[in-house]
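Handoff note, outgoing to incoming analyst
You'll be picking up this chain. Sequence as last confirmed:
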Amino acid sequence: MTGSTPDDLVTTFRSLARRQREAIGDADPNVVSGLVVELQGHVAAAAAALG
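Most recent structure output, in case you need it:
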């Protein structure tokens, strides 16, 4: 494990929503919705594991 602090992780998780919006861009929401739900599930699981 790296020397990341809880504050570093908070900053990282906060920026995920912005990065997701940028990555999706103008894509059709119907096309990517399944992938977005899957990604959000993984992020939620990671956040829960980190406490």
